[in-house]
Amino acid sequence: MKLDKLSRYDLNLLINLQVLLEEQSVSKAAKRLHVTQSAMSKTLARLRDLFEDPLFIRSAHGLRPTPRAESLHTQLASALQDIQQLIQPPKFDPATTQRDFTIVTVDSAYQLFLPSFFAPLLKAAPNMVLTFEDWSEESLQSIAQGRIDLGITARENAIDSRHQLDPIPPGVKFQHLLEDHEDHFVCLVRKDHPILSKPSWQIADYLSLSHVQASCEGHDRWALDITLAKQNKSRRIVVQVPEFHAALEITRNSDLIFTCPHIFARHAVQNYPLAMLPLPITIDTITYLMTWHQRYESDPGHKWLRETLYQHIRDNQASTFNFNH
């Protein structure tokens, strides 16, 4: 290895190139690296000289990487991660760590899995800081870029759903959070809802009610609605809210019906004056996942957090719910 030749190069340029590859925008890269747009433009010019390639071509949607830049992307991310691992302590001690992790999670998963996690976490890692953000349309991309440490989401298993398992980007690792990997949907109504006095519960009864719906990733229609549409049926959704907690509050105070995953419904009926009904139509299941970028796979602190959270979820849910019923 000719280290004397390597020393002639400014290795900070590689960091700048990685950020440009992730953002594909000079202004966004400049903001992220806390430099001016002019300085970032000069850096891009130096990178072009270094690699003897334009690296990026301007388009209507920002910078488009050249084939040379695309070939560098995965290799560069891995090399920078290796360098970061070299300068980090080889061991991780939760009792003394001061690391800050950013976690994005869908609202239902937060309510189900996380409130009881903080007490044991603070006992084991009193100086660790967790920053939580709501899951959004950009969350998977942020995880794919390594900008978010951990994500907890739910994916529908229906082939024609926009929330499938398949669209998870390359390089993003995941782990199932439920013992049998899947959950089904049920309905929630207030405990004194008139529908509960009916002798039968059929799809016609379900569709006769007005519905409240919680959105995710900007979408307000699910595999359920696709299945109904194939049968020339549809729900009457009269209230659309951004989170499951709001849907529960509305359901307990109205005649609206809320359709949600079974495990969440079992949590809800323990904490709200609600009754559970089966969903009178067969649809595909849902999967809860913990996701992270593959570059964090062997990071000792990240691995400790994943394993601790996973074990807490499994232990807590096993003691609260019977997954097989």
Care to describe what's here?
Helix content is 41%, strand content 21%. Helix 2 packs across helix 4 and helix 2 crosses helix 5 (67-87). It has helices at 3-6, 12-23, 26-33, 37-51, 67-87, 107-113, 118-124, 139-144, 203-208, 223-230, 244-252, 262-271, 300-320; strands spanning 56-59, 62-65, 100-105, 129-134, 150-156, 172-176, 185-190, 210-214, 236-241, 257-261, 274-278, 286-293. It has 13 helices and twelve strands. The termini are far apart. By secondary structure, it is an alpha/beta fold. The relative contact order is 0.14. Strand 1 (56-59) and strand 2 form a beta hairpin. Belongs to the LysR transcriptional regulatory family.
Question: What is this entry, summarized?
Answer:
It contains 13 helices and 12 strands. It is α/β, with parallel strands linked by helices.
SSE topology sketch:
Blueprint: H1 3-6, H2 12-23, H3 26-33, H4 37-51, E1 56-59, E2 62-65, H5 67-87, E3 100-105, H6 107-113, H7 118-124, E4 129-134, H8 139-144, E5 150-156, E6 172-176, E7 185-190, H9 203-208, E8 210-214, H10 223-230, E9 236-241, H11 244-252, E10 257-261, H12 262-271, E11 274-278, E12 286-293, H13 300-320
Parallel strand pairs: 3-4, 3-5, 8-9, 8-10
Antiparallel strand pairs: 1-2, 5-12, 6-12, 7-10, 7-11
Helix pairs in contact: 2-3, 2-4, 2-5, 3-4
